[in-house]
Amino acid sequence: MKRYFSLSVLIIFVVIGSINVHAKDYTKYGIEKDIPGECSYAAIDAKDYSGRTLNIITHAVPVMGEPTALHAKQFEELTGAKVNVVHVPFGDLFQRIMIPFQTGQNAYDVLFYGSLWIGDFNQYLAPVPEKYRNTKSMQEVTKNYRDVATWGDVMVQFPVDGDRHYLKYRTDVFDNPKMQEKYKKDTGKELRVPTTWEEYNEVALYFTGWDWDGDGEPNYGTAEVAKRDDLMFSAFISRAAPYAKNPHVKGGFFFDLETMEPLINTPGWVRGLELFVEAQKAFPPGGNNFGLGDEIFSFGGGQTLMSYSWDDAFIQAMQKDSPIRNKVAAAPLPGAAKVWNRKAGKWEEFDPPNRAPYITWGWTSAVSKMSKNKDMAFDYLCFFSNQANTLHDLQIGRFGVNPYRRTHFDPNFWIEKLGWDKNTATTYVETLSGMDDSKNRVFDLRVPGVGQFMSSLAAGVSKALAGQETPQKALDGVAEEWRQTVDRIGKDRVRAAYANVVALEDNKK
User: Fold this and answer.
1) Rounded to two decimals, what is the model's pTM?
2) For the chain, what percent of residues have pLDDT higher than 70?
3) Which residues contact 95 (CB under 8 A, 6 or more apart)?
4) Nearest-angstrom CA–CA distance, 453 and 100
């Protein structure tokens, strides 16, 4: 609850102006110190929301759900508000948000969800007020993630995370002279960080099924998100992107923008799926059913040599109690030496390999247009993402809060504050920040019905992974379902939304 000074104490402070008044100590909340700003602990502590209730819906614990609940409890104590937090598994989160919108129910004030759903949610979201858009923290958000938060020219999502896929690998293996010698002897090739997905699969398979780190347990080559209903579609997009996203071809990656014909079953996409199927040979036991949490703890716990999804596995590996702390590094996603040119109808060779960084959907937040507590809701989101909280949350792998402000890409923060090895920190920030500069990026679909498109994609890919259909046949089925979905939603409506994505990918914004 709120705490107030008595009148007499206030008078003393006014009269004795020479007394040096010290700021309150907020370190009990787990932060190193409060950082002055529009939504700092001190600023929010000055608010009084007693007697008011804030309703929040978020993902299940831990990813995003845990920091949501943590900062909700802090917000309650600081402001006197009552904050209710509802946690929902990812597979149910879209519907739990969308149904109240469609039925006109004012169910939640604050929403945490996947930013790719903006195509469905945008009409129900309150624009972010100018005073929050102009805060120092918001101005530090990189262009990629300000773009992700915007629909048309209006910011309707509140950035709280910056997500992308990149390669993570064990330096104690790749930089080990004995391992290099053994690999060269056995394969005739140099052991190096993979630059193509073919190389990735080869290295992963070699390091599968034996105890290469000497801990008494067998190790494996790769941990990947392969579970159908647990973000597997994103893992597949990372593998397919360099084969299907040709830098010489504009006008669409998922669809041809002019015709809205799906491209999902074209040769580049098929090649990506063939390699995904092949990679299963290097998965740990049960890896075919790995969700994001499994991937985080498989690589982050030292079981596997490589992985390539979100930051969380890397941050988990760098926890203070991790057996592989400072034995990991980051690199761009593997690329493709041959890339499909859909305009020319043929493969093109690339040397060096073509790279297609995937700015995959990240967690985002928003305030419902129907909320009666917009002032409190935006204050909560601004507090959630204040500088002190963000620096705290970035350090905890399971929280799912990843770098999204320019200040997060200073290697000294990771070295001095977290004790990261210089090489680990440097490869991390250079890999992440370098993706912002790419001219061949891939973004998420971000159109109405994206859940239907991605569910269809995941189902088709799962059939190929299970050996039920060939990659080509599986993706042919996905393409047909996508055509039907486009027709059901309306081709012009989907095209208008998809044009925003193509503008980002073709660097027109």
Assistant:
1) 0.87
2) 95
3) none
4) 22
